[in-house]
Amino acid sequence: MLLNHLATGECVANLHTGVGNCRTMTGALLLILQAVIYFVTMAAVFRSRHQFGIGIFVCVLGVMHFLETYLAAVFFVQLPFGLISPGSTVMFSGKLMIFLLLYIKEDAETVRQPIYGLLVGNCLMVVLALILRLYSSVAELPGYRPNLTFLDDMGILMIWGTALLFFDSIALILIYEKLGQRIANTLLKRIFLSAAIVLTFDQLMFFIGLHLVSGVPISALYGGWIAKMAAAALYSALLVGYLRYVETNKPTLAGPEPLLQVFDRLTFRHRYEDLLQKTGKDMLTGTSDRGQFEAVAQSLIDQALADRKPVSLLMIDIDHFKNINDQHGHVTGDNVLKDVARSLGSSLRSGDRLFRYGGEEFVAICHDLDRADAATLAERLRANVEATTFVEPGVRATVSIGVTTADAGPVSTEQMIRDADARLYSAKRLGRNRVESAPVA
Fold it and tell me: What distance in Å separates the CA atoms of residue 261 and residue 170, rounded to the nearest whole number?
């Protein structure tokens, strides 16, 4: 009898455990199902932007925003590691990843439009809800009673959530770009790490507002964080799959400043080139760019002359570059630029600086070279370019070089550029593929 009772108790316990495990598995599967449906639907709407315009995509985001905030505030499911809200885990995390997709395939100027729209719309909702209190008599319909307190709470959470979305989106873009330059060596790792960092910050900040407004317990903080990390992994995989198999065309990839200006820095379609220019690199050739030249050239010249050492500036131009573009196409022209830059860079000394000045022109600044030594170096550069085996079969290229040297200061960058440019055009008039030098006038 006792054994039967114990066996029955064990069976009941096992049954409860099984039911609990089943409910946990069901809850997790439903979250995954919602995430997949959310991403597939939003990606399909996003994909159709070329046919129907971006407005449909923005409207869908706006419609989902209220439901997302409502569920994040009042609808939670219990999983073994804490309380989980589908609104926060599935919808907000998904929306943030969709914004990253929008940035990758479009630009930051497009990303900020729906964010600003959501923020203005939420503020407008709160203002209009406050005005509702001014009505002297409100009719109560059978079975219905207006709940303005609920509307107030939702308005506060929606404004708070949208403000966080603004910060999150900026941070996500910046971290995504920085990881691409420094740490993450795969697209999946780059997207996941960016999302994980931002969603960790968001979970903490939104929970503070949620706890103050709705009294949500602490289990929603760590439970939501674990779920958001899983969501980051799932959405990252889905996003990479979309970029690799659906939209396969690759996008064209200083001191602190006010946060509101970050989107302005990351705007327009050449965002990646802009970021590279901020680091002083030319995207195509890998040399320092014109902006970097203008930032450091004068100080390089002044430093050399202050050390009582000569400084030389070499203006280098690819001969007949327009003909290369016209005859072989701009892709071949780009490859020639890269090959010439590689040849020049390998021929300069370790302390020399090479810049892409513009188009097919390069500038080199060389310390501790008098006029004769600078001319010798320039001749070596010219000969090495002429001997270069270019990537494009059958294509040859040469360079003309103008050299100027300063032995004493003060000398301006503009003056050295002007003198070197005059020597360059002299080399071109004399038949190209040659070096002409002169001291600073």
Answer: 10
